[in-house]
Amino acid sequence: MTVIDVHTHVFPRISRAEGRILADADEPWLRVHADGTGMMMSGDREYRPVVAPLWDPHRRLADMDALGVDVQVISPTPLMFGYAADPARAAAWCDLVNDRILGFCSADPERLLPLAQVPLQDTAAACAAADKAKAAGHRGVHIGNHVGDRYLADDGIIAFLTHCAHEDIPVLVHPWDMLGAERMPGHMLQWLVGMPAETQLSILGMALGGAFEKLPSSLKLCFCHGGGSFAYLLGRADNAWHNRDIVRADSPKPPSAYVDRFSVDSAVFDPRALRLLVDVMGAERVMLGTDFPFPLGEMEPGSVVRNCPGLTPDEQELILGGNARRFFGAGTPATRKDG
């Protein structure tokens, strides 16, 4: 069966001078070392050590071969989002990043499928960037789960998602800029606790805030990191909806009624957790995701799916590749417009 990983990242070679297209301070850029390692930079600050497959497509393809992955969906690293910038600068930055991602994926367009980023802080600019990216050959857009204190039930973001639905542009949502950072200073707790919480907050915020009632059902929406805590706390949320009017004030249905309105990746790292996720979401709404090439990702892509108790061969095929073929058009040429 074809193995398609929908949650992988890239940080193209971008110099510090190019990073200043976005910001005059704390600009994102990539420092590459002579030994083949690298460092994601935020201005003068070292943000995270990284390895060559993050920016070198040939190393990426070699790793995919070694790991048994046929296709990756390639999205920008969240440090690159640039949502705090002036919209005009952010739009120019997105043009640069999206062009570099296309260049990265040109090493093998059938195996490396690009996702674009957009200046989500400005709805009109984000819609224009998404259209431009689709015309250039991107398979969808990759967005953060919030812009400052604006989450996905915000009117402006709903307008952007509605545009994506009408234009058949898939949307991959990634948690970032995690809440409670001051309470989680060590041990990568922002990633271990904050990321699942951010994703849970986003999905529940959409359900209880009435966003799914406003959005077209045709929207292709996928949340990274297994939907965070959502599947595991859904009973708690439904119980609250049924018993407290303040919880259901803006939503005519309980949160469980909306599980058919979005997908999630499989990045939960435990077959027992994946079993519950599939029970809640349905096998047709879970796609393989590993967070490649970061060290908190799944080291053996697909192993959790293959070892998940009770999954049928057909369900494994859906999760490992079939759902992604439908969602992102994997295995079909990207639509490009000349000029």
From TrEMBL:
Keywords: Decarboxylase, Lyase, Metal-binding, Zinc. Residues 4-329 form the Amidohydrolase-related domain. The keyword Lyase applies. InterPro entries: ACMSD, Amidohydro-rel, Metal_Hydrolase. Pathway: Secondary metabolite metabolism; quinolate metabolism. Its EC number is 4.1.1.45. The keyword Lyase applies. Monomer. Belongs to the metallo-dependent hydrolases superfamily. ACMSD family. This is 2-amino-3-carboxymuconate-6-semialdehyde decarboxylase. It comes from Yinghuangia aomiensis.
